[in-house]
Specification:
This protein has 108 residues and is mainly α. It has one domain: lambda repressor-like DNA-binding domains (434 Repressor (Amino-terminal Domain), Orthogonal Bundle), CATH 1.10.260.40. It contains seven helices and no strands. Helix 2 crosses helix 3.
């Protein structure tokens, strides 16, 4: 995942809404420092659950934040996909699977 690209999208969407970091943190039930670290690319990765929370708060789909990255990759290793989906609820896993099917159908 291109962490910088995702972080920039999050920041741009937040600013477009006129929200402060504190406002996005409140909407996502995350710490303001977590949002700040993501936007400043401090750290090595963003948890899938965090991306889902941020996308929901910003009223976008996770694809809106990640799509450029998913389209660039020809495949995702099954082990990586399993690790990404593991912390999600079964409903969230189903939603992710539906997104993957949708992307696959529309990119053929």
């Amino acid at each position: 995942m291109d962490y910088i690209n995702v972080a920039n999208k999050i920041k741009t969407l937040r600013l477009t809404k006129g929200w402060s970091i504190a406002k996005l943190a409140e909407k996502t039930d995350l710490e303001p420092r977590t949002i700040s670290r993501i936007e400043l690319c401090e750290g090595s990765d963003i948890k899938v659950s965090t991306v889902l929370r941020i996308a929901k708060a910003l009223n976008v789909t996770p694809n809106d934040l990640l799509l450029d990255e998913l389209v660039k990759q020809e495949f995702v290793d099954d082990d990586i996909l399993f690790l990404m989906l593991k912390p999600l609820t079964s409903e969230q896993r189903i939603n992710v699977q539906e997104y993957i099917k949708f992307i696959t159908r529309n990119n053929k």
